[in-house]
Amino acid sequence: MKVYRYPENPLITPEDVKPSRPDLEVVCVFNAGVASCRGETILLLRVAERAIGDERCARVPVLECGKDGSCIVVKEFKRDDSSCDFSDPRVIATPDQVFLTTISHLRVARSKDGRKFTVDPNPGLYPDRPSESFGLEDPRITEIGGTYYIAYKSVSPTGICVSLATTTDFYEFQKLGHIFCPENLDVCIFPEKVHGRYAALHRPVPRFLGSLNMWVAYSPDLMHWGDHHFLLGTEAGSWDSGRTGGGAVPIRTEKGWLEIYHGATPDDHYCLGAVLLDLNEPHKVIARGREPIMKPEAEYETHGFMPNVVFSCGALADGDKLTIYYGAADMVIAGAELSISEILESLS
Amino acid sequence: MKVYRYPENPLITPEDVKPSRPDLEVVCVFNAGVASCRGETILLLRVAERAIGDERCARVPVLECGKDGSCIVVKEFKRDDSSCDFSDPRVIATPDQVFLTTISHLRVARSKDGRKFTVDPNPGLYPDRPSESFGLEDPRITEIGGTYYIAYKSVSPTGICVSLATTTDFYEFQKLGHIFCPENLDVCIFPEKVHGRYAALHRPVPRFLGSLNMWVAYSPDLMHWGDHHFLLGTEAGSWDSGRTGGGAVPIRTEKGWLEIYHGATPDDHYCLGAVLLDLNEPHKVIARGREPIMKPEAEYETHGFMPNVVFSCGALADGDKLTIYYGAADMVIAGAELSISEILESLS
């Protein structure tokens, strides 16, 4: 598979993003939703911020909500507290509760050429309610009839939900509430109705039975989802043996819906793959790639906050050219071009 | 709290239920959906069957689906195979997969007086598709406009979903598909629309963040669900510190929706409790009982397949009298009468 990585990569790094508050620092900018709007390429960035800690003390930003509104507060954990687990850089586990080391919001970046982006100085979508107290993450953007629907993770101690927001211009946003209950993520809404209903990919995270597999759901109105179908499982011994999850919003082709998804091994080596879904019944797989279409290879993909991760939340199709934007090593944004026909020919 | 347990208890035991196949035995009959239909009290029993094993060999019934239909097959596991875990009577864990020791279907029992039941000789709802290969469990029945909507767990290696079926007479049933994706259970659909939408209690089972808490969702059509709200969490040190989950279909009272739910400690001591929900916004708790309304006390509740379990999937209100049917020790069906006004007065 020919992958043309932009020589400008990484396109956006934490240094390009102004913190939302002076006492926070941006550590990761990654996993961006992608849209075309008014002649511009829009990236809706996941911006992960942390409180500035030191050798003795880890500091964690958490949203607190009261009657007068919401505010990020900083909680402190002493690093020599043996009751706490600091081994995963994303998480601090106390005996009572898990905390995330960063809190994410969503920020717009705009570009005329798809390579050079200007990042808005302020957040676009910011946590502001109890169900978002650990942040907003990993948006996917679907344009339907001039409205952009943004499906994103809202994370809190009560669970990881998927919420919906809308915008028409990427300046004003409206939050509409939870469309998938805990624990779920990687929701990609199809760009048109299928057989009279909206459709979405989603990725439940079950506890007792089942693996980290992709499912399809249907909806009459984008807010209420049901008729869930198992779609794509992990394959033992394969590059996606640990998990699969939707990546880009599905792309209509003559042969079926082309979905660029992510898969990972159990030790979190994330690649991108492709699968072709039935045009009328997208819970049916027509063909699947046995190999990834893209693996972590560039230095900014193999080194970073979480090494060896390429993870896409969106792509733009223009004729045969597919521009994939992706988070690299959970730390920066990069872009690459692939051929849609070459991807389709690789599926069996 | 005064609890009048029927002197006839247990009302239905495994001996009262004819196996669905000659090579299976009924080991548990419990967790029944409840309805009134044509002057009769209907229980839609969960009937758990197992394959007859011996000291050397455990045998597990599993549905297999092919092009020509579906059929229960019996898988064998040698008890001296140290790679398998037989410690939980409900589960056999192999290195590759978890199996349930029993497979459940749903069976109708009918009664004129609510105490003496006649069990149908054949199953009402039987597993017949891949997503039901480990069985059907724990139905809740909601009557709306003469149609009975049955929400039940469909269990398979791909996950525990909640599915919907309908009937008008409890002789013919129609399966409609999955309404909640993995991992979810304890879905109780409200008996009327609330502010123009249907409502349901549900109990997601998240893996990474969140506990075993009750949530509320809304729907325009009973098939597609969204606008999820966290409802009722576990309380540390309390009788429901391990989990909460919907029990009976909510009962409309002047003060709010009365919900009889189950709670358990982390070591699976299951009691019944009560909570009062806002009539117009049932994702808001008005009052909650600090003590259970019913604890395992009778011999058939403290001894059985899973000791110390009272677990209800349905109740019938008649004036102030509430008749709760419940699974006792995950093995038999029992009934008890309580006073609705006394329950309401106990909430704070």
Structure description:
Two copies of one chain form a homodimer. Chain A has two helices and 25 strands. With 348 residues, chain A is an all-beta fold. Chain A has a single domain (4-345), classed as Glycosyl hydrolase domain, family 43 (Tachylectin-2, Chain A, 5 Propeller), CATH 2.115.10. In chain A, the strands form seven sheets. In chain A, strands 18, 19, 20, 21 and 22 form a five-stranded antiparallel beta sheet that branches. A four-stranded antiparallel beta sheet of chain A has the order 1-25-24-23. A four-stranded antiparallel beta sheet of chain A has the order 2-3-8-9, with no helix packed on it. In chain A, strand 19 (251-253) and strand 20 form a beta hairpin. The longest helix of chain A is centred in the last third of the chain and has 6 residues, at 340-345. The A-B interface holds A 98, 131, 134, 155-161, 177-184, 202, 204-210, 213, 215, 217-221, 223-230, 233 and B 98, 131, 134, 155-161, 177-184, 202, 204-210, 213, 215, 217-221, 223-230, 233. Strand 17 (224-232) of chain A pairs antiparallel with strand 17 (224-232) of chain B, so a sheet runs across the interface.
